[in-house]
Design brief:
193 residues; mainly alpha; Endonuclease III, domain 1
Length: 193
């Protein structure tokens, strides 16, 4: 890990200022799409709510499913976004200030109640929206592959093996994850030379 840290630029993970509702809706919009397509769909979605930077959960009541489908969301994503909005209104998805008082495990438990929001999505939320310092997404392909590359392994570790190894990085597992993603980037650069 020390060698990887020397090779990569300094870790800079800065939490974003999005509300939990916005962060989860954007995460669902990006699922299984490349960034350009997801951003196009998100821009069309935002155009449904003129005068707003991002809609509030109850704003979705004024929009029909057909309108959401017309911007490019699949039926499953429409159902997920509606469920996230309903759970934000009911308090299952709390405001950021309330989330800051919950543990990572409590947040995972609450947010995975939302349709279309799994553990990986919540782990990315913890890292990049809330800026939590000790998250190791052991199911993430990039993190597992980065570990394989950084530690010279022939095969990627199983999630359980990575979780056990990752205990040595506690309480900075978010930073370790970031560097493992960089290991993949650096390997790609090296192979293109």
């Amino acid at each position: 890990m020390r060698q990887l840290i020397r090779q990569a630029e300094p870790c800079e993970i800065k939490p974003c200022s999005r509300t939990p509702f916005e962060a989860l809706v954007r995460a669902v919009a990006h699922q299984q799409l490349n960034g350009t397509a997801a951003e196009t769909i998100t821009r069309r979605f935002l155009a449904l709510f003129p005068g707003r930077r991002f809609p509030q959960p109850n704003d979705l009541e004024a929009v029909e499913d057909d309108q959401l489908r017309a911007v490019g969301f699949s039926r499953a994503k429409v159902a997920a976004i509606r469920d996230i909005a309903a759970k934000a209104c009911s308090g299952v998805v709390p405001a950021k200030r309330q989330l800051n008082r919950l543990s990572d495990d409590e947040i995972v438990s609450r947010l995975t109640e939302c349709r279309g929001v799994g553990r990986w999505t919540v782990e990315m939320f913890l890292m990049f929206t809330l800026g939590r310092p000790d998250v190791l997404p052991v199911d993430d392909f990039g993190v597992r592959n980065g570990f394989r590359i950084a530690y010279g392994r022939a095969e990627m570790p199983k999630p359980k093996e990575l979780a056990e190894f990752g205990e040595r990085w506690r309480p900075y597992r978010t930073t370790a994850s970031w560097y493992l993603w960089r290991a993949v980037d650096l390997a790609k650069l090296k192979s293109s030379d």
